[in-house]
Structures are given as C-alpha cells and as structure tokens.
Amino acid sequence: MSGDTLFTQIGRALPRKEDRRLLLGKGRFLDDIVLPGALHVCFVRAPLAHARIVGIDSAEAQALPGVIGVFTGADLARWTTKLRLEPAIEGLHPVQMTALPIDKVRFQGDPVACVVATDRYVAEDAAELVVVDFEPLDAVASFEKALEPGAPLVDDSLPSNLVSHQTFAAGDVAARRDEAFSIVEARFGLHRHTHAPLETRGCLADWDAGREHLTFHIGTQAPHPLRSQLAARLKLAESQVTVVSPDIGGAFGQKIALYREELCVAALSRHLGRPVRWREDRLENLTSASHARESVCRTRVSVAADGRILGLELWLTEDFGAYCFYPANYMARVVAMILTGPYRIADYAFDVQVALTNKCGNGPMRAPMAITSWVMDGTIDAIAARLGLDPVEVRRRNTIRVADLPYTMPTGEVLEDVTPLETLEAAVAAIDVPGFRARQAEGREQGRYLGLGLCTVVESTTYGSKFYKAAGIPGSGHEAAWVRIEPSGAVNASVGLMGSGQGYESPLSQAVAEGLGVTAEAVRLQMGNTDVAPYGMGSRGGRGATAGGGTLYLCAQKAQAHVLRLAAHVLNLNDATGLRLREARVERLLDGDWQPTSLTLADLARTAYLDPTALPAGMAPGLDFSLTYDPPPMTYSNATHACEVELTPATGELRIRRYLVAEDCGTVLNPIVVRGQQQGAVAMGLSGALFEEVVYDADGQNLSATLGDYMIATATEMPEIEILALHTPSRRTPAGIKGMAEGGIMGAIGALSNAVNDALAPFGVVADQMPLSPQRLRDLLRGATSKNAGKVPPK
Amino acid sequence: MTGPARREITLSVNGERRSLTVAPRKLLSDALREDLILTGTHVGCEHGVCGACTVLIDGRPARSCLAFAVQMEGHEITTIEKVAEGGEFSPLQQALHDHHALQCGFCTAGIIMTFQAFLAEVPDPTEDEVRDVLSGNLCRCTGYQPIVAAILSAARVMRGEGQA
Ligand code: FES
Ligand code: FES
C-alpha cells in the first residue's frame, strides 16, 4: 500500500504494553481489587425452565451466621426500574423485564433471589437454604416448539413467542426463479454457543452514602453505555455513577449489557450502605450469562447454467432464549443485511424470524453475524455441486471486482475499497488447489477422504450511526477521544473503548503518536473509567481500530496542529507551514529537508500551561484536546479462508491438515495485535464449529454446565493458522483503517464446513448442522456408500 | 452448614513461611488470593478443567482450586509471583512476550507455572509434547499457536541455543 510508508508509528510491530503486568501476575482484574468490609452475593437460581414462583421462604437462610439478608424480585423492584426495549421497529414486539423475576422464571438458571453475606462460602451455603415454591409450567425448548399453535408463552405479555419477524425484497426473485437454469436449495444449522471468557462475570459496587455516589467496578466492554443504563435503572443521575473497568479476562460480547445480577449488586450496595461484590461461578456463566448463535438459515438460489447467481432468497430463524438484553432483531438482522457479501447479487429477499424459548437469553458473541459467510459460500458450493462446476470457478464468476466498486448491495449497503477477488485468488494459489485435487483423488482410491473448503468473508467491522438507522437497530456508532499534553510534555490520551484482552494499549498509542508526532512509547492510554474517558460507545464488533484508533488519530492531529501554531509563534514565523512534530521535537522544512529545531513538545507544553502570557493572541492556555467522530455507515474488511481436512469415515474423526487466511483489513495499526486477533478468531470459530455446544433437553434442562461438557478446543486440536496479509487502505476512514477481529469466526465456520462437505462428497451426504462432531459425522455416514471405497460399516 | 471452625495454619509459599487462619474447606486458590494477597493465580472454573489456577506444589504443577489450604502444611507452594526473580522475566515469560502469546492474560499464569516445571524436566520437547501438556490449560483468546511457539523458543534459550 502506498500510504503506509508515510507512517512512522502506525504499522510498527510494537510489543504489547499490557504484557509486563500480565506476565508477572500483576494484572489487576476485578477479583484482585480489595475493598474492606465488602459483602458477597450469591444468587438463588431456578432449577426449572419454566415455572410460577408461588413463594420464597428464606427464614433458614437468614438465620445462618454471616448472612446479612436475602432479597427477592419484589424487594429489588422497589429500588430499580424495569428494562424496557421498545424501539419503533416494524415487526419487533416491545418487551420489558424487572431486576429479578417476580411472578415466574423463564429458564433453568434464572435468578430468583439474592443472598448477601459476609463471605462467599457462607453466601453459597445460605443460597442452598432458600426454599422456593415453584409451580411447574410447560417449557418450550426449541424454535419449532415455540411457534406451535397453543405453545406456552415465554413472555406472557406477548401475543406469541415470535418476538420479531421482518421481511425484505429487492428486485424480483420470483422472476429470476422463472428464468433460472436451475434452482438450488441449501440449509445451514448453527447450534447454540456461549462466550465462555476465561474470567467469568463479576462486579463490585461501592455506594458512598455521604456523596450519594456509586462507584461500580466491573469488567465491561462499554463503560459509558453501561453507566447510562445503571444510572437510569437505579433512578440516579449519570453524574452519580462512575463505572470503572479493571483488566478483563476476555469478554467476546458477553460483557456489554447491564445484566440483572449486576443491577442487583449495585442496588444492594446502595440499600445496605456497604460495598457488595459478586463473582459468577463457571456453572452460572455457562448456564445463565448469555448464549448465542442458535439459528437455521435456508437459501434458495436461482442460477444460470454457468453458475452465475440470478436471485437469492433467505429464510432465517433464531432461537433467542428467554430474555432480550438486546432487541431481538439485533443479530439476525445483520446477517440478512450483509449476506450477499462478496458476490454480485441484485435480486434478493429475506424473511427473518426470532422466537423466544425457555433457555438463557442470546446476546452478540464475537461475530454476531457468524453464520453469514457459511450460508453464502455454502450456497455457492451447493451450486457448484448441482451444476458439476468447479467451486473456485463459480466463486470467480460471481465475485465483485474492482471495476464494480463502489458496489451497492441489494439491501443498500455500500462496499468500497474491498478486494474479495484478490483474497480469493491469493488463497487459491497458496493452498494449491490443483495439487490438492490430485492428492484428494489419490487418497480416495486408498480410502482416505480429504476435503478442501474455501470461504470468502466480507466482515462488517465498524457500525456507524447511519447503519444502525438503516438496519432498524437502535444505537449510535460514534466514538470520542481526548489527548492531553501535560505541562512536563507527558502525553495522556483516552477513548470510550475498553479492551478485554485484545491489547489496545500499543496500537491505540500508535494512533495517537502518529497523529501528534511523538513515539508510541511516550503515550499513555487511560481507558475504562467513565469519569476520565469521554462518552463513547465502547468495544464491540470490529470497531476498535477504526472508531477508537481513528478518533484518537484525528484528535491527536488536532493537537499537533495547535502545538505547531504555538511553535510558529515561538520561532517568530508567520504560520505553521513547513513545521512538523516528530518524536516530540519540532522540525522545520528547509530546502526540501526536514531539520530539527531546538524546540521540543515539553518546551511548548511548559509555555502553554505555565507561561500563558507568552502565547499568541487569542490562544487559550493548556494543551487539552477532544474530538468526537462518527465513522462511515459501515466499514468492511475482507478475507478468504482455505481449509484442508481429512475425515476418517469409520470414526467420524476430523483432522485439520492446513488452514490459511488471505486478509485485507486496511491500514494495520500494529501487526502483532492484528495477527493475534486473526488467529484467535479463527481458533474460536473452529472450536465452536467442532466441539462447543450448549445442550438443552426437551424440558429445557441445560446439560452442558461445566467446561468438561461445554468443550473449548485445546492445544492438541487447533491447527497452525497461516496468514497472508493483503492489506489495502480505505479511502473513507482516518489513516485508512478498516478494522477486523470477527471475520475469522465467519470464515472458519464456512471454510471448515465446506471442507467437510467436500470430503463427504463421494458418500452423497451433506453436513448441514453444526457442530461437526465425530458423532454427527458418524451418524451422517452410517450405511452411506462411497463411490470409491464401498460401504461405511454401520456401528 | 458453616462447617468446622477456622484453623491457624502455616504454609510455605514462595520460600516464605506464612501463617493464616482459614476454614478447613477454604480452597488453596482462595487462600492464596484472599489471605495471602497473591492475586496472580487466577480462578477460571473452580472445577479443575481450565488450568488457570495452576501453581507448583513441591515443584509439580497442580490445580489450586482442587486442593484445600489446610492440606498444604508441610508442602512447598510456588506461585507466579515467584517466577520473575527481582522483576526480571524468566526465559519463558520473555518468550511469551516476544511471541505475542497472551491476550487477556487470564490463562497466562497457569501456563507459565505448568511449563516452568515441564521445561525443567523435559528440556528438549517436541511440538506434539508441548501441545499435549498445554492441553491442560484452556486459552480462549490466542488459538494456542503463539503459546506453542513461545514454549519451544524458551526451551531453546534455556538449553543455551539462543533465540531463533
Ligand atoms: S480454576 Fe482451577 S482448573 Fe479452572
Ligand atoms: S489470553 Fe485470554 S484466555 Fe489465554
């Protein structure tokens, strides 16, 4: 890329500033913060998926030494307001919930009461002594059951369990079907996941009764939006609440919303006038925090004889669980909006239905739109299989080219500066498709089943306010930053993001350093405290670099311009033309050469703060800059994933033999951190596609409540992930940043599944339901006949 | 329900004798973190799966969430706080930093403790051996690839074969 040679700080492989404290065991996570006299909370949770609360007897629990009190939904309702989600979106029913359920529980693990004690062990003992009288109700534990006529209502205030239903059509898909050479249908079932950050949720509330001020310590991705919610629901002014986020042991989307447990802890600290803390245990985290992804997509695609797509239809259903901490259309809608991704498709229609069920509620999990690329590229493979065409060729024929840009998707989304054909060709070349096909053919002769899967991803990274508006999702996409040069010349900066392990400190320092003209080592980022940081929308999606880094970069540029105006005055120049700041020293362009001057940033800072009479007329004292920025409606990065697997038909065992990603995510702030995000996202996608699964039985009992049951991939199962960097800058964002961090999941799910289906092809079966566990593959293959190697033995 | 009374015990932690008063059911992980304020040891599951709480007991890696503090009298316990003598990274810590082998860092202490012991015993492991031992520690962030590379690199450095 031509631009990046101009950068001196952006793009450096600067090691992570966080590492030292984390490697020494000196990170400061929530549980490492000690507040003397803090009380501990334990929640009493529903053992049934759906039941009326008839009565709660806490006498025995209250009598236990060390117990301060047991509080119920009725108690909490006196101190808190309800969460109401009522965005004016067609087809979306408004919903509301209290701090704790009062009349009935809606899933196994729903909190019913809250025990406060002097010690966590005692609180857990007491929770077991609370007797709740439940009247069991029939539960709905699947999307299908939820929509049966006469199905029990998960939310009694709704007319049915169909909480959201939206349709869309562009062009004329019926006409395209009529003129099609062939109509191909495919199904894609993604199972229920949960985020499972290694550090569970937790919080520490500290009510200062004298100042009437709440300090709320919590690992949160979005400190300010959380503060807004917390203040509103406690009936406090936003000036009465400070949210402080310490180091976070992973979040992946699970630490955005204000959960009911957290609200209870805050309300109880205020009620009791003492610090109160909660540490979620792993069972609670797996069963009661937030789930994600469970959805089924069906596509019907009209194609020409050469594989060109004429029209595409999507039916998407999502099993949302029992409660809406986000509008129920939030995740599914984005999938439908961006489905066509890298492909040229004008005629498109979708039908998206979201149902409530008696399971833990869904939330966005790293790549809320995870299923998208699997659905689209899986559909492409289905076309190739039906028409007997090369899947690479079908992709080529449909992929958007540079000449097509800017390309307006049928939903109105605009793609600019994306390179899907380039990443496709790079991945195809690197994985050596002809070589693979030869090995595959040879393997099949010997009864070895290799498969190759490709998946091109167009990743929606930075959601600007205009996207939210267009998608019918409430929300702002802006971000805010400040940069302060202190009197000594030290540089502080802040932004509304809060990292949960990505390693923001180095790359964001680089954005500031580039804009200001200092080295990244000299910049200190102050994040996570709402009294310090400006009001931004926090960390979610892939917005950290573009929204966070971009805003900081622009703000630092504004600071540099001011500093140079002051420098010009001190140097007796008319204006700042021909001046720049580099490594905190003012440089001057003389005869086409940048020459250092004697002036440093520290000199100018001293003048700005301590000698205001020396400032030029009209210049205010101090060096304190702030800026807000609303990114374009959406920024996109793109990638093509290629995955080679070997399947053992007799056991269903799957081995990943090779995995590579060709990716274009624009200007890279820090290649170390970006590589970590790419590899981490692919690994999380593979882990989910292969092993992880939240399992409920027909009565809504969660059967995957330990990390032994909800299986996260270990080091023995994860492949090496090769990365081909093909970055080209965006022309629409500060410094050309595009953002990334979620696309790895989208691509991994799609590439793996396409590879498995390539391996399965000789057997004439298609895997259309995740996870691709040995059991599921074995079930598919039982009794199936390979064209090459005869029948797979039935078990 | 509150169980038998708290007891005064003396533990040997990181080479120091430390006295504390704990209930018999108090987990070693909680005693280290809450009573001795050694918060570098993390707790990720409390059921023995994730490995975040790994410490050394008599030089061998063990899950501190699966032991009671009162069982530890007479044993030598080593935690992450002891690894960097005088604030200097061990070769393993340095390699983890150099290979960008941590993100949130919540799993990191457990991994360091596991491999401080393993590399002392097996100075020249294969990648498969490293992956096998590492499978006892879950990492949700990295995909393990850089951790494996870091451990192999640390082993080389510890064998005196330079960085590479
Ligand atoms: S906390 Fe001990 S193994 Fe997870
Ligand atoms: S770095 Fe986050 S769990 Fe390993």
Provide keyphrases for this structure.
heterodimer, A: 795 residues, alpha+beta, Aldehyde Oxidoreductase, domain 4, Aldehyde Oxidoreductase, domain 3, 3 domains, seven-stranded mixed β-sheet, 21 helices, 29% helix, 26% strand, B: 164 residues, Ubiquitin-like (UB roll), DNA polymerase, domain 1, five-stranded mixed β-sheet, 32% helix, binds FE2/S2 (inorganic) cluster
Poorly predicted runs of 5 or more residues of chain A: none
Q: What about the largest sheet of chain B? A: 5 strands, mixed
Instruction: Count up the domains of chain A.
Output: 3
The secondary structure category of chain B is alpha+beta
Domain 2Fe-2S ferredoxin-type (chain B): 7-83
Protein name (chain B): (2Fe-2S)-binding protein
Keywords (chain B): 2Fe-2S, Iron, Iron-sulfur, Metal-binding, Oxidoreductase
GO molecular function (chain B): 2 iron, 2 sulfur cluster binding; metal ion binding; oxidoreductase activity
Element layout with pairings:
The complex is a heterodimer of chains A (795) and B (164).
Chain A: H1 19-23, E1 39-45, E2 51-57, H2 59-63, E3 67-72, H3 73-79, E4 83-85, E5 95-97, E6 104-105, E7 111-117, H4 120-129, E8 131-136, H5 143-146, E9 162-170, H6 173-179, E10 182-190, E11 193-194, E12 202-208, E13 213-218, H7 223-233, E14 241-244, H8 260-272, E15 276-279, H9 282-289, E16 291-292, E17 295-303, E18 309-319, H10 330-338, E19 347-355, H11 372-387, H12 391-398, E20 407-408, E21 414-415, H13 420-431, H14 433-445, E22 449-463, H15 465-471, E23 479-485, E24 491-495, H16 505-516, E25 523-526, H17 544-570, E26 579-582, E27 585-590, E28 593-600, H18 601-610, E29 624-629, E30 634-648, E31 653-664, H19 671-690, E32 722-725, H20 743-760, H21 774-781, E33 785-786, E34 790-791
Parallel strand pairs in A: 1-15, 13-14, 18-19, 24-25, 31-32
Antiparallel strand pairs in A: 1-7, 2-6, 2-8, 3-7, 4-5, 9-19, 10-17, 11-16, 12-13, 12-15, 17-18, 20-21, 22-30, 23-24, 23-29, 26-27, 27-28, 30-31, 33-34
Helix pairs in contact in A: 11-20, 16-17, 19-20
Chain B: E1 7-13, E2 16-22, H1 28-35, E3 54-57, E4 60-63, E5 76-78, H2 91-98, H3 108-121, H4 127-134, H5 145-158
Parallel strand pairs in B: 1-5
Antiparallel strand pairs in B: 1-2, 3-4, 3-5
Helix pairs in contact in B: 2-5, 4-5
The complex binds FE2/S2 (inorganic) cluster (2 copies).
